[in-house]
Amino acid sequence: WQRLPAPECAGFDENPRQALRRTGSALDSVEAGCARCERDQCDTTVGWGGSPDSTGETTLDAMIMDGDSLDVGAVGDLRRIKNAIGVARAVMERTQHTLLAGYQATSFAVSLGFTEEDLHSATSVAMYEDWLRNNCQPNYWKNMLNDTEECGPYRPDQPIGRAPFRPDRPVAGPGMHDTIGMVAIDDHGTIACGTSTNGARFKIAGRVGDSPIAGAGAYCDSAIGGAAATGDGDVMMRFLPTYQAVESLRQGATPQEAANDAIARIIRKYPTFSGAIIVVAKDGTLAAAAHGFAFPYAVASDSTHGKTTVHTVQPEKLSVKQ
What we know:
Largest sheet: 5 strands, mixed
Number of strands: 11
Distance between the termini: 37 Å
Strand order of the largest sheet: 3-2-1-5-4
Order of helices and strands: HHEEHEHHEEEEHHHEEEE
Strand content: 15-25%
Radius of gyration: 19 Å
């Protein structure tokens, strides 16, 4: 982020730094950054053509939040629209809603002029075909008959309850799931944040993860700071880690203390989960914490003289309060 004025509209072909320099808008910067990653298909875990669901379709989740008004726009299980973050911003600015999902979100996008198109790619088709040949393993079912041995449909087997840990369960991390999360601060002190992802690879069709949920995937308040998270979204959304981190800042915690606490709260109940969070205070100080994998993140600010620097936080043993 950097303090730069000049009100114009950000272009989708810009990177976040260029958008912030040209328009002075944190919202434009977040939208441009997420859109760039969607278009570039970052690690095949963001944007079209990656992470097929259990029917072979690529669907998208995204959200954007204005830290001044706390307005949020989001889409979940978005189909056949490549610019998910753009549709999320349209939800925020053109409706009184927060989240639209599924085919109805597609219809909404098309009504506003977004292009409807196929989200398959040769890569996603190959991923899906390989998964079918492997008897649909691994998958996200539990307590079902033969769900570890063959493709569905499945029938209930075990009594409903907490299923035992499945070592073959897909885990969040490189290759299986990832999210672009952004926090930006502009010249006016406005903080914006956002996310975009194509979700967990081979997820059960219809699944919506943490990324489009305010307080889970990202959260920001211009008076306090912002945060963005990635990892096992089905677990992380149960703890609203980005909201928790911003509230910790509000109570006087440092960004590092807030990040560590948000992750530690999850570890207490789910010690094998994988995830990470970055926390940014309103003055631009920041920190990150991770569990289960090393977490790389990029920073561009006045202190880096406008250059983007990449940092990696290693998973650490955090103090977990019982």
